[in-house]
Design goal:
Elements (H helix, E strand, L loop, with lengths): L10 E9 L2 E6 L3 E6 L13 E7 L2 E7 H4 L12 E7 L2 E7 L1 E9 L12 H6 E7 L2 E6 L7 H5 L1
Parallel strand pairs: 2-10, 5-7
Antiparallel strand pairs: 1-2, 1-8, 3-6, 4-5, 6-7, 9-10
Length: 153
């Protein structure tokens, strides 16, 4: 008798990364690639958190500075920064982060809800908190990463 094993939907793989002094994670299934920092070409009249665009194998890729988007202090990117290329719906975007730190496997039961004292901006992005080795990693949703005008482009 054979037993068919199915993936447990409560278990998910997450990629953890640093932005400033904080750690965040996203679903690894959204990640298309991780690449080194490349200077971006600025777009006129774009939001402050959109660093510009880069050419990714012939496609225009908008680069979102995740620190600014999350309301954290901006930093000037260096060769140590990385761009996480993610797929959000039909759009690919690059997320500028300080460093990728880990790949985590998390059970949905281990993810704690965001506190009620958080701001609307935090609630728009942070979908939960994951305790890992004595630290808290914010699980973020990228649904609101881009302004609606850029999504339509």
């Amino acid at each position: 008798m054979s037993v068919t094993m199915q993936a447990d939907p409560a278990i998910r793989e997450l990629i953890a990364f640093r932005v400033g002094l904080q750690e965040f994670c996203i679903n690894v299934m959204m990640v298309r690639e991780i690449r080194g920092w490349t200077a971006a070409t600025a777009l006129p009249r774009s939001p402050r958190y959109v660093r510009g665009v880069i050419n990714l194998r012939g496609a225009v890729l908008p680069i979102v500075d995740l620190a600014i988007r999350l309301g954290l202090p901006a930093s000037e990117p260096t060769a140590r920064n990385v761009i996480i290329v993610v797929q959000i719906g039909q759009q690919q975007i690059g997320l500028l982060v300080d460093a990728v730190s880990d790949i985590l496997t998390a059970n949905s039961a281990n993810i704690q809800p965001s506190p009620d004292v958080s701001s609307d901006l935090v609630r728009a992005f942070v979908k939960g908190l994951l305790p890992v080795d004595g630290r808290m990693i914010s699980l973020i949703s990228l649904d609101n990463a881009l302004p609606r005008e850029l999504e339509a482009a």
